[in-house]
Write a structure and sequence with these properties.
Layout lengths: L10 H9 L5 E5 L5 H5 L8 E3 L3 H9 L12 E4 L10 H14 L6 E3 L1 H9 L3 E5 L8 E4 L9
Parallel strand pairs: 1-5, 2-5, 3-4
Antiparallel strand pairs: 1-6, 3-6
Helix pairs in contact: 3-4
């Protein structure tokens, strides 16, 4: 255990988050997402796991992970097939975690399912959660941590 670090953030996840650079993508996926096969194509090359609901994982990750302020799709969600404007409860819960972490409204961009898979293959890493609800899949683009004010 470390002081000030959410205990859900295991050593493998912390290492990956720290190693990522500005503009790298992180995928947080539900249990139905093809995490293993997709993760093999990422920079890390293997799936990372946090066996908790998606909103809890996002809350933990965003406690240490800055979102990119230079792009519109720094926070994105997988669209529901044949209902792209529908936002299911799992995505609403994650939206609340994003807004809380950023201290303001930060809407997620919808991404069509197969386009989400393609973005995921280009990501730095994939964290598979224990989320069993459908469409609990999210992409987060890393931003920067500014220098301390002098």
């Amino acid at each position: 255990m470390l002081k000030g670090i959410n205990p859900l953030l295991n050593a493998d996840v912390l290492r990956a988050l720290r190693a990522m650079g500005h503009g790298d993508d992180l995928i947080i996926a539900d249990t139905n997402f093809p995490s293993d096969s997709v993760a093999r194509q990422t920079q890390i090359g293997k799936v990372l796991r946090i066996d908790r609901p998606a909103a809890e994982v996002v809350e933990a990750v965003l406690s240490v992970y800055p979102l990119d302020t230079f792009v519109d799709d720094a926070a994105a969600r997988m669209e529901i097939v044949d209902a792209p404007d529908e936002v299911p409860p799992v995505q609403q819960e994650v939206q609340q975690m994003i807004d809380a972490a950023e201290g303001k409204s930060w809407p997620m961009m919808p991404i069509e399912r197969y386009a989400f898979y393609e973005r995921s293959k280009q990501a730095y890493c994939v964290i598979q959660t224990g989320e069993r609800r459908f469409y609990g899949c999210f992409a987060f683009r890393k931003g920067v941590v500014p220098p301390d004010a002098e």
